[in-house]
Amino acid sequence: MPVEPSQLVQIDYTPPRAPWPGAAPEFRKGTYSHAGAAKNLKYLGLPNPRDWQPASLDWKLPENWREIVLDGMRERLEKYRSFRLFMDICVRCGACADKCHFYLGTGDPRNMPVLRAELLRSVYRRYFTPAGRALGRLAGGRALTVDVLKEWFYYFYQCTECRRCSVYCPYGIDTAEVTMVARELLNLVGCNINWIVEPAANCHRTGNHLGIQPHGFKDTLDFAVEEIEELTGIRVDAPVNRKGAEILFVAPSADFFGTPHYYTLLGYLMVLHEAHVDYTFSAYASEGGNFGMFASHELMQRLNAKIYAEAKRLGVKWVLGGECGHMWRVLHQYMNTLNGPPDFLEQPVSPVTGTVFENARSARAVHICEFTADLVAHGKLRLDPARNDRWTVTFHDSCNTARGMGLLEEPRLLLRAACNRFFEMAENTIRERTLCCGSGAGLGGDENLETRMRGGLPRAAAVRQVKEARGVNLLACICAIDKASLPKLLDYWVGGVEVAGVHELLANALVMNGEKPRATDLRGEAYV
Amino acid sequence: MVAAAIAYLGFAVFVAGMVWRVVAWARVPVPFAITLTCGQQKSLAGIRAAWLENPWTRAGAACRTALEALVFRSLLRNSRAELLPGPRFVYRGDRSLWAGALLFHGCLLWVLAGHLRFFLEPAPFGKANGFVDAGLLAGLAFLFLRRVLNPRLRYVTLPSDYLPLALLATVAVSGLLMQTDVAAVKRFSLGLVTFHPVAPAGLGALFYIHLCAASALAASIPFTKLAHMAGIFFSPTRNLPNDSRARRHINPWLGPARVHTYAEWEDEFRDKMRAAGLPLERE
Hints:
The complex is a heterodimer of chains A (about 525) and B (about 280). By secondary structure, chain A is mostly helical. Chain A is about 45% helix and about 5% strand. Chain A is built from 23 helices and 7 strands. In chain A, helix 2 crosses helix 11, helix 15 (about 295-315) crosses helix 16 and helix 19 runs parallel beside helix 23. The two termini of chain A are about 35 Å apart. With about 280 residues, chain B is mainly alpha-helical. Chain B has one domain (about 1-95, about 160-275). In chain B, strands 1-2 form a two-stranded antiparallel ribbon.
C-alpha cells in the first residue's frame, strides 16, 4: 500500500460547489478493480467478451449499447418491485448519507447511498417517467452517455451490497437491490470485474471459486485430517462425495485454502467429529459462496443450483452450511426460491440433540452456528475456554448474516462458551448496524486496495477503540471475505489484532473424547 | 365555476394517478424474499427472537410496516458520524429529522382532518388549533432549512425537491391568512361532494390561491416523490416476514438455470477422481 494511513485518513467531507451531477470519475490506480477477462466471460457465456480496462478511453462497447442497457432497465422495472419502487419513492432526506462505509472512508458524495441510487434514478427518470421525458434535467432526468456508464461502473463496483443504509432509510430503500440491478445492466454490455467473473467461472467449472479440482479438494481435506491427528491424537473423518450420509456440509471454498480460514475448517472437522455427525463434503458442490450473486441473479442461480442437485444425488437428508456471509444471504433468502423446493430432503433435525430446526423446515439448510449453538446449549460439547486465554476477543457481525438473516446471538453464544474474555464493539457498529469490511460483493482484489482500506476504515476504527479500551487482540467473525480482508485492514489501521473464525475458537476450547494433552492451539501456537 | 373545475381536476388527477401508481407497483412481482433484518432471527428455543425488528410472521411484518408509516421508526435510529483523530468515529444519535418529520406530517394530518368540517354535517371535529398550525409551519420550515443549510443535503437536493415544499408552503400560508367564512366554504365544498357545484360566494383571492395550490399539490403526488406515502406499504425490505427458509417464496418469472451438471463435471475430472479414490457415478 503506497499511501500511509496518516495520509489516507485526511478525508474531506465538504461536497463540491458545483451541483450534482459532476464530472465523470477518474479511474485512479488503487481505487477500482480490473476488468473481467474475456476467457472468463466466454466460459460463462456472458455478453461482449473482449480485452479492455476501465482506465482506457475506449471501453469497446457494442454499437447498440444504449439500447441494450435501456431495454435491460425496462425489463428489470417489470421484474423487480424493489427496483421500481426504490426508483420512485426516495425523498432525498439524507438519513442514509453518512451510513455508508465508502462515504465515511472517501468523503466522495457519490458514495452517499442516496446519490449512488440517483446515478441510476436520473436515467430512469429521463427514459421511463412522464415528468423526466418531458422536462429532462428540470425533473432530475439525465441522458445515458458513455460517461454515465463509466460512472455506474465506478460507483456500483464501489458498493459492497452491505445494506447498512437500508437500516436507516424510512422507506427501507435497499441500495443492494439498486447495485444488483445496476451490475446486471453493466453485465449486459460486458462491463464487469475479473475478481467476480473469474471465481464465478472457476466455480462453474470445478465446483469452487478457487478452481480447485476434485482430487486437490480431497488432498486438502486429507491434509487437514492429518494435522488434526497431530494436534489432538484423534483421527477425524472427512468424507467427500459419500452417498447415504445424513448431511451434506457446504463451506466457502476459502476455508480449504485461505489463512486464517483454514483453522476454521479444522474447527468444523473437530466439532462435527466430536458430535458424531454423519456427513459428507462434496467436491462438485465444494463452494457455498456465490460470486454469481455479484454479477446477476441468473448467475447466482446457476452456481447455487449445484448444492440442491448434489444433496439429491448423494441422498442426504439436509444441508449444513459453514461460516460465510454472502453465502448465507443466498442460502437464506434466495436458494429455496431459485432452486427449490428441495422436497427430496427432510426437515432438518439435529441428530445429536433432536432439535427440530423449525426456521429451516422448507429450505432445509442450517447454519453451522445454529447447529453448534444448539449443541452447546444442550451441553453436548465439553469446552475449556481457558484454552483461548491468550485471546481477548471481539465479534464482527458480517453484513449478510446480520441484515439478511438476523443470525446475531448464535455466534455470540458460541464465543461466550469458548472464550473467557469477550467484549463487544461500540453499539452503532455491531449487529444490524455492523460496518462492512470494505471488500465484500466481489471488491476484494488487491488492485482495489486503496478503496478497500478506505471502505474498511469505520470498521477498523471501531476495532481500534475496543482494542484500546479492553485490550482486544482477536476479532472473531463468520465470513470468508472478512477472514480474507480484515487481517490486512486491521494491520493497516490498527495493528496487533488478528482474525479468526468462530469455529476455530470453539475447536480450540473443545475437549475431545480421548484426545492427547494438547500443546498448542489450532495455529500451532502454545496455549497462553 | 372555475374554482369547482380546478378542485375536481386536482382531485381526479390525484385519484386516477394514485390508482395508476399503485397498480404500476403492485403488478410488478416481488421475486425474492429480501427482508432486511434488524434484530435476532427466530432459530433456537433458548434465543429470544425480535418479533418486530425481524418479523417471523406476517402479522409481525404488518406491525413493522405500520409503525414505519405511522411513527417513522427507522428514523429513530438515525445518527451523525464524525471522524476524530485516532482515527476514531463517533456516532451521535440524531433524532432531529425524526422529530421534524413527525411534527410536519402529524400537523398536516391534523389540519387535513380539520377540513372535514367543510364536508360533513355535523362537523366531526373542529378546526385545528393555533399550535397545530404553528407546528405545521415549523415542520415545513425545518424541512426546507435543512436542505438549504446542510451542505451535504444541499448537494443531494434536486430542483424538483423544492416544488412540493413551495406548494405546501403556499397552501399552508394562504389557508392561515384566510378569514374563513365557514358557512361560505361549506356551501362550496358541499356543492362539490354532492356534484352540484356552486360558485364560491363571498370568498377572497386567498381562497382561490389556497384551492389552486392544494389542487396542484394533490395532482402532483402520484407523479413525484410524494408518492412515498403509498410506496412505504410496498417496500419489500420492510413488509415481508423473515421466513424464507421456512416458507418458499415463489418467483413468478423464474426459469430453469443453465447448470454445469454433475455428469458434465465428472466427465471432465473422471481420471483424476479415480486416481484420488473418489467415488464415481460412471466408471
